[in-house]
Amino acid sequence: MAPLESARPAQLGALASASAQPLVVAITARALFDLEDSHGLFERKGIDAYADYQRTREDDVLEPGIAFSLVRKLLALNRDIPNEAPHVEGKLVEVILLSRNSADTGLRIFNSIQHHGLDIRRATFTSGAPVWPYIRPFGAQLFLSANPESVRRALEAGVAAATILPARAPESVHGQLRIAFDGDAVIFSDESERVSREQGVEAFGRHERERAHEPLSGGPFRGFLDALHRLQAAFPAGDDAPIRTALVTARSAPAHERVIRTLREWDVRLDEALFLGGREKGPFLQAFGADIFFDDSLHNIDSARQYIAAGHVPHGVANP
Questions:
Q1: Whether 37 is catalytic
Q2: Cβ atoms of 284 and 248 closer than 8 Å
Q3: Which pTM value belongs to this model?
């Protein structure tokens, strides 16, 4: 008998309630819009000059930032929700704005959200205070920010989080939402990466061969990956599916087997898996057409952000 068939009615209700929750992404204004000039002004001349700058330009529309295309595609998933897909308030995805602006200086941000037609309705303006304490109350499974300290605090609180580094906003080449992940220290724990760094590549290979049938522990993005998988399951699979995912890892054979078996054990779908054996990731991510890529290595992020938006995950042995 399948697990759902053997579950009690109360358990079934709890499962249905969990599956009905939308995917919630929290994002800061600097990740969503290009605010580098005004942020530089704030750092040079302080809050008063920044506030005056934003008030006098509150009707000037902000240009898209690094994560703008990602957010637009996430919100587009709410337009054509399959009839059988569980949702809340007509949404499969909700995006929350978290900003260290005041409500006064944040008016330009909301005006820009409305101009660009982004369905973002919930927001927190903290007037310079940290925004990360509000991530969990909103139920966010992912937090994107240009502030490394906020990202670290979110990760410590058990939320998948990444630092969006300033770069030219990428142009989307696919109608699909395409998200790519590194494996170790992102989807998985950094257990195997520690072996590689502390004992060398040969020890890493031996470690993975001996544990090929032992599932890897989950990393900081396991929960987000599960939520994204449930979101994918709401749509028919195939070439017309609105979401496509990829694992892009420095692993190669024979270290591939443990990864494949772990994802099978988790019952998580990834559409593509690239085992690159140490090759530069950027060109492969461009070929995949990723809207964003998550990796714990700044070296890999620097390679990726030449082509696509990239989020640094400051977790694990690579980020002491």
A1: no
A2: yes
A3: 0.89
